[in-house]
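pinned: reference chain
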Amino acid sequence: METNPPTWDDLRVLLAVHRHGSFLSAGRELGTSTSTVARRIEALESALGSTLVHRSSAGTSIEPDALRLVALAEELEHGLEAVRRDSGGQASRLTGTVRLSVGDGFVRAVTQGLADFRRKHPETCIELMSESRLADLARREADIGLRTTRTESQVLIERRLGVLRLGLYASQSYVERRLRSARLRPGDFERHDFVGHSGPAARQKVGEDWLVARGAKHFPFRSNSMLAIVEATERGQGITMLAEVVGRELDRVVRIEVDEPPPSVTVWLVYHRELRQVRRIRAVVAALEELFHQRVGTG
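pinned: its structure tokens
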């Protein structure tokens, strides 16, 4: 008997069940009833002749063989969202949405810069995603990304923004208690506390490797959130490594001098090759380049 292939409506129900772990939560996300979600999944399983969702008293989980369908659903979702962002109105070639993916260390500066941009171009809408997991730009999960690692994708364009210099910072209270000279000398690192990064970004790994190589051992506070790292540092939890452009804007921290300069990382602006002629993408790229050069320099 011939069966109909899965539709986007079928796949989005499966995707919602995968993401939310129950028919009830999936139904809330989709704006439909639990029974409707269950019927749609049962119909999809019947059409494909296989079990897609494991049901238990603890909730639901996707069967391993169904993960390919989940991946297909995610790809369709990203594609449809990209089409939505690309379908700007006719009043202006800058009309539409630009989605950016940045690490949270960049969020404040990028938000400030793009607020200035939108005052000049209110027809452009911005979606700013602060992520510990980098969006897949090749699959159009976002339109533009700021990265501290190179890409190997042939469908992406990279533009070098410049060099982000790093420095060591601690609160005034920490300096008064533990480091009155506000200077770390060789041999001092092992007896001090450090606020560490737990995220995967290259800047974080480079910074921590540099500290550990000089004897740093005690990391009593770690986070993948820049907000938490800054707060912990300001509250005297230890010394941390921040981008100079971040550290110099904080009122409650002191720059810690060292004999050997901390490392630097190169920042890249990345976007999909298909977007290189889209006017609003080019305008936002130019605004980000200008923002970086004003605040950091080209390096």
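why pinned: Residues 92-162+266-295 form a domain with the D-Maltodextrin-Binding Protein; domain 2 fold (CATH 3.40.190.10). The chain has a mean pLDDT of 86.
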